[in-house]
Every structure is written in structure tokens, then in C-alpha cells.
Specification:
alpha/beta
Length: 100
């Protein structure tokens, strides 16, 4: 799970949850941009998994090969999307391409 916390810091307390990979904030815009690139890379990796196993999509994969769910939660989406338009384009394209 990746948390994007812009403006108010409400998601900060969730940083310690076991499945939280990181919390991105408006205080670290370069970090947010790096995370956008990493998310795009992860989506590309996940797109290759079915092909590598001769499957149409992830729903056709054997259970031991299915990648875990990837959750991205964004607080203050409007603020984040205006302040990081390039990241927004990358992140908003990922769910469309990453769906089964």
C-alpha cells in the first residue's frame, strides 16, 4: 500500500501499518515523482507476468503466481493532481492498465 498525503498529514499515522510501503507528501515532491516512476515500472512488470505464463490476464494465472494487490490511497487528490500533473497522468493511467 502506498499513501499519498497532501496538505493535512492525515495519513501519516497509517505509515506503521504492516503493508504500508511508504507515505508520500507535498514536502517531498522529488520523492513523489520517483514513486510515480516506480509505480509505472511495477505496472509494466505486472503486465508481463501473464504473458510469461501463457495467460490472458492475471485472473487466468495459478494462485502461486498472482501478484499481491497494489493499493494507492491519495488524500487531497485535487491538490496533489494540480501540483504534480506529470505524476497524476502516470498514476491515473496505472489502474486502467493494471486491471485484470
Amino acid at each position: 500500500m502506498v499513501l499519498v498525503d497532501y496538505e493535512r498529514g492525515r495519513l501519516g499515522p497509517l505509515a506503521g501499518l504492516p503493508h504500508t510501503a511508504g507515505v508520500l507528501t507535498d514536502l517531498d515532491r522529488p520523492g513523489t515523482q520517483r514513486a510515480a516512476v516506480l509505480l509505472e515500472t511495477e505496472v509494466h512488470r505486472r503486465e508481463r507476468i501473464p504473458a510469461a505464463h501463457g495467460a490472458k490476464d492475471v485472473s487466468c494465472l495459478p494462485p502461486q503466481v498472482v501478484p499481491p494487490h497494489l493499493v494507492v490511497a491519495v488524500d487531497e487528490f485535487a491538490t496533489w493532481s494540480v501540483s504534480t500533473p506529470r505524476s497524476r497522468r502516470r498514476w491515473c493511467a496505472s489502474p486502467r492498465r493494471g486491471a485484470a
